[in-house]
Amino acid sequence: MEKVFHPANTRGTANFGWLKANYSFSFANYSDPERLQFGKLRVLNDDFVEGKMGFATHPHQNMEIISIPLEGQIQHKDSMDHNASIRTGEVQVMSAGTGVRHSEFNPSKEVLNLLQIWIIPEKNGLEPRYDQKDFSDLLKSNELINVVSPRSDQNKDALWINQDAYLYLGSFESGRKIEHNIKTKDHGVYVFLIHGDLEIEGTKLGKRDAVGIWNTQKITFEATSPAKVLLIEVPMN
């Protein structure tokens, strides 16, 4: 088993007034050769967007993009003619493929907190696509719920992307122990603690800490206080 620990206070940061951003990996003006990506996971941004503000229309290409609002809602518009709201409890996926333009706006007066995740696709030049789903009724306490899977996976409850990657969300009571079996020996897992306290394979995590683990068949973790977890399993090569 190999591990890398990313404490919350070692992330890159940016403050644009309307946006306060935290970067787990090199992004925009934050560059760290030791923090370029984790396997096929390229971006994990923890963004706080002020009310009535947002990201103006901008392009993406050849990337699988997942957005998870933790507080508030996103107003999304794109060049594929989608105009949608994504609220807490929902997950959004967008395959940028050959190219797409989109904007993200906070329509509320309250601050929007969202996680933006980019995963490198299995190949370039794919057809752009968009989807979203409300997982509120599926997110049960003390279980890891699969919210994103590969297109080839048989889990019809999950959204799909063009990569052999899986995303899970889970909320756990204090003292709860969870075991996660990794799909293949070529995969690793990146565990991002949204809030609470967690101990995973001998490493203690607090709010917004993360740990990447690979070269193992399974991981075990315990919530040492009520905790909410994002687990991302990706190919390492």
In terms of DSSP E residues, the strand content is over 45%
Measured on Cα atoms, how large is the radius of gyration?
17 Å
* Count, helices: 0
The outline comes out as globular
Q: How do the helices and strands follow one another from N- to C-terminus?
A: EEEEEEEEEEEEEEEEEEEE
CATH architecture: Sandwich
Structural category is mainly beta
**Count of discrete structural domains:** 1
Uncertain stretches of 5 or more adjacent residues: none
CATH homologous superfamily heading: Jelly Rolls
Helix content: under 10%
By DSSP, the count of extended strands is 20
Average per-residue pLDDT, rounded, comes to 97
* CATH fold label: Jelly Rolls
- So what's the CATH class? Mainly Beta
Largest sheet composition: 9 strands, mixed
How far apart are the first and last residues' alpha carbons, in Å? 16 Å
Overall description:
The model has no long low-confidence stretch (mean pLDDT 97). The radius of gyration is 17 Å and the shape is globular. The chain has no helices and 20 strands. It has a single domain (2-235), classed as Jelly Rolls. A hairpin with a 4-residue loop joins β7 (73-78) and β8. The chain is mainly β and 237 residues long. The strands form 3 sheets. Strands 1, 13, 14, 15, 16, 17, 18, 19 and 20 form a 9-stranded mixed beta sheet that branches. GO terms for molecular function: metal ion binding. Residues 147-234 form the Quercetin 2,3-dioxygenase C-terminal cupin domain.
Give a short overview.
This protein is mostly beta strands. Helix content is 0%, strand content 57%.
Task: Note the topology.
Layout: E1 2-6, E2 12-15, E3 19-23, E4 41-49, E5 54-60, E6 64-71, E7 73-78, E8 83-87, E9 90-95, E10 100-105, E11 112-119, E12 129-134, E13 145-150, E14 159-161, E15 166-172, E16 177-181, E17 187-200, E18 203-205, E19 210-214, E20 218-235
Parallel strand pairs: 13-14
Antiparallel strand pairs: 1-19, 2-3, 3-4, 4-11, 5-10, 6-9, 6-11, 7-8, 7-10, 9-12, 13-15, 15-20, 16-20, 17-18, 17-19, 17-20
Family: Belongs to the pirin family.
GO molecular function: metal ion binding
Cofactor: Fe cation
